[in-house]
Write a structure and sequence with these properties.
It is a single chain. Helix content is about 60%, strand content about 0%. The protein is built from 11 helices and no strands. Helix 7 packs across helix 8 (about 115-130), helix 7 (about 95-105) runs parallel beside helix 9 and helix 9 crosses helix 10. The protein is elongated.
Length: about 180
């Protein structure tokens, strides 16, 4: 038997359901209703279903970023966030940079109560960003670490070396004009 949450994400993509978080037109009504139905079938197991998902498999769907962000809204803050983030972290590598980048920017940045998991994700993303010089991941790290960038001089150095107008703009916005 497959993962019911992955099946739901595939169904939502097939039916072209809206999975735009905070959509003011439809509020992702179809996806949320299906997710609520799934949570009735699998009480308190949305986190387990999420933890069982493979980042590499999720990336195959065009709707994965919004779907996952909406799923995080159904989790109990703290424990369930850790369960999911801790399960995904060992699977993060060069082939899942977009996944790591999106989770970092959309989830980690907005989850102050899962600091241990967040710190581990930031460390892994920092390692990936420095080894690959991935502009989007570097940008996300600059924005997530904004007030603590003084503790990450290598990240700032690499960001300044990359000839990207977008990175230069972000560096200015975080107070590190070049």
């Amino acid at each position: 038997m497959g993962n019911l949450l992955l099946d739901l994400i595939a169904h939502a993509e097939e039916k072209k359901w809206c999975v735009t978080p905070w959509c003011t037109t439809c509020g992702n009504r179809d996806f949320r209703r299906a997710l609520e139905e799934l949570s009735r079938k699998e009480p308190n197991n949305i986190a387990q279903l999420m933890a069982e998902l493979s980042p590499a498999h999720l990336q195959a769907f065009s709707n994965w970023t919004g779907s996952i962000e909406i799923c995080f809204l159904y989790l109990t803050p703290g424990t369930h966030f850790h369960q999911v983030l801790d399960a995904w972290l060992p699977q993060i590598g060069e082939n899942t940079i977009r996944f790591a980048d999106n989770v970092l920017y959309r989830i980690i940045k907005n989850v102050p109560f899962a600091r241990v998991a967040a710190d581990a994700w930031i460390a892994r993303c920092l390692e990936l960003a420095l080894s690959t010089r991935d502009e989007s991941l570097i940008e996300s790290l600059l924005l997530v670490l904004r007030s603590n960038l003084h503790a990450y001089p290598k990240l700032v150095e690499v960001a300044k070396e990359i000839p990207s107008r977008q990175l230069q703009r972000v560096l200015r916005n975080v107070g590190l004009a070049t």
